[in-house]
# Entry
Amino acid sequence: ADTIVVALVGFAAENAYPAANPTAADRLAVAAVGGYGRAELAPFSDVDLLFLLPYKETPRIEQVIEFTLYMLWDLGLKVGHATRSVDDCIRLSRAEVTIRTAVLEARWLWGERALFDELRRRFLDDIAAATGPEFVDAKLAERDQRHTRLGDSRYVVEPNIKDGKGGLRDLHTLFWIAKYLYQVDDVAELVERGVLTEREARRFAKAHRFLWGVRVHMHFLAGRAEERLTFDLQAEIGRRMGYADRRGARGVERFMKHYYLHAKEVGDLTGIFCAALEAQHKRRPRLTLQNLWPWQREVAGFRIEGGRLTVASGRVFRDDPVEIIRLFHAAQAHALEVHPSALQLVTRNLRLVSTIREHPEANRLFLEMLTSKNDPETALRRLNEAGVFGRFVPDFGRVVAQMHHDMYHVYTVDEHTIFAIGILNAIEAGRLEDEMPVSSEVVHNIQSRRALYVALLLHDIAKGRGGDHSILGAEVATRLGPRLGLSAEETETVAWLVRYHLVMSNTAFRRDLNDPKTITDFVEVVQSLERLRLLLVLTAADIRAVGPNVWNAWKAALLRDLYFAAEEVISGGHAVEGRDRRVERAQGALGDALAPVGWSAAEIAEHLARGYPSYWLSCDTDTHVYHAGLVREAERRTAPLTIDTRIDRYRDATEITIYTSDHPGLFSRIAGAMALNGANIVDAKIFTLTNGMALDSFSVQEEGGGAFDKPNRLARLAAQIEQTLAGRLRPMHELAKRRPAARRLRTLPIQPRVLVDNKASRTHTVIEVNGRDRPGLLYDVTRALTALGLQIASAHVTTYGERAVDTFYVKDVFGLQVTHEAKLKQVRDALLAALADPAEAVATPAAPA
# Structure
């Protein structure tokens, strides 16, 4: 770029528009600014130029500049430019920090060097010398605003490599501040100034090389100036940078882990640099409430300086490494920030942390921080940011920056865990009572409070090890519990919770909660009320911490229903009654509810005769009453099709009930019509009555979650269901037009899987399918089941980002479980074919599970 710019401007000034006797006003200098000024130019970055004049622009100089710019544009370069005099640059720099930064980075390319040197001298003397603290505050505030705009976390799954937290712009900010205050042109010169150690300067250079290499790859791959490290770029860049798959970790996950570690390194360097600034330039810290405590100078043996906790000498951690843990413990206990100089000292003494892992006092302080009611999330995040957490608990260190290459998990494992601890603390404090009323009540009845916090800390501790992380995590818990000071009973509880931390969500979201065997199987695992309470709170905190909008009213309602059903069984309630007795009780409750609202005894008896036992066991009394009214009205009108909707605010979903003649493929056709309208089916119950009519109930939500409740969309949905059932609308053809998925989602490998279970229910075969989510997936799968002659009794639909996990309770044409091996193979093959993504160019054969 330098060669092209210099050649063009030289040709313009000396050949295209030569001056026989140039005046002083005809002098011109060209400088590179911005990233180009730093000599950093990504493949599709702007070439930013400053045309520097002594006075006003003359006609000849205007011609030279225009010629140069037009030639650069014709070459296809993106050029940013400004034409200013030296006086203009100084005046604008004084008024605007952005221009001040541009002049700071200016690099001479061509022309009057004396003119450029004059700008540099006046800038340093008139601007930089008098405005150092002001510039630092402005750039740090700018950085904070940028972080807030992009989510204020360096652990998002699709980070912005340039402007995100821990990205290149943060390194640039440090470079600008160093250049402004110390007049250095290279980070290595900061070692001579005593700002950074040689090791820290090497860390700076290493982080910069890595991030810069990733950015260049992104530009080449995208063919444009792309700064967001999206899923479709991650896998290919990881491959190009040499990250291969290894046991327990895919190459793309290893690549992203290194990215997050470098982003964390940038954060560490920022803290060290800010500490040096305060020490060398005596900058006053921002005003806090603690600054107003002039009479308190010391807490737990640490000094308070500017409202922040610091150490008295540089030898304190070498003399007693336990003081590293005590520093963070004291900061949490007294709600104080840790001074950057103390953090810098911690960073430089991290090797000492490994010597105190078995120290009883260090473990006591750590456990107190974890289980404190005083914001444990912030305390743990400080420990993690400082690098202490992973050194003190090496198993946690293995999941620092560990990511999942999917659209469901928003944060890395360590960040998710720390978020979960914060949510547990909020549940206990009552701050999430509206979102989680049962958990907020149950948490105060728990006896094993310490075990709950430790279990949540360890629930994902074994991810990325190449096995079942629940089983491996339980082994870690058994080993780590005594070290942290837990009793044998508490350690056993922690290990059990880690081992079974997914059982409640899997049961609630993938099984029919109205099937008694679902509840009894779950209770056999849980066994006690204490464990049930612990599991509910842990599950709620875990799901809520996965990412924004993952926790919703539908999931909350399913967990509550499972909790209350299991609580009833464990407490000896009637949920263990025989099948016939429960049918009688359900029918009796419906009769009692219908008689006062005008139903005669004959009408009640006629309606009770319509339902098979499975119907009476699958719904509560309120739903039975609702269905009874709908069926009676439809029979009076002799309507061939009745569609009714009601909003279920408890689950934040819309219940769509359809009463029509039963026929094969009814579920599949309805699912197709709903897919065409963007209505996501999250639950379905399919009933055939004794009169040959189908009474099907679907719980649907918007694509982004929440009830499907807009009147115009509900009306259009009802019309398209009617057209589909009448054969006037063919969902398969309509969906084929909409099928192509976003390329960034298709790059995420999803191995289709089909699981068949004849033990989860006494009366049905339970089929669970896993595959890439897409519009019409449920339609394709249910069409395949219908073609196999299977009757679908209920469906339970869950999505985890780009992955769909759908569960169906089915019977064969004789109303029995599917047990013949040849038929089961036929089911697996057909469902694997239905799960195949039609948007994939090449289908990868999947082995049946």
Summary: Confidence is low (pLDDT under 50) at residues 282-295, 841-849. The longest strand covers residues 791-800. DSSP finds 38 helices and 16 strands in the chain. Residues 251-281 form the longest helix (31 residues).
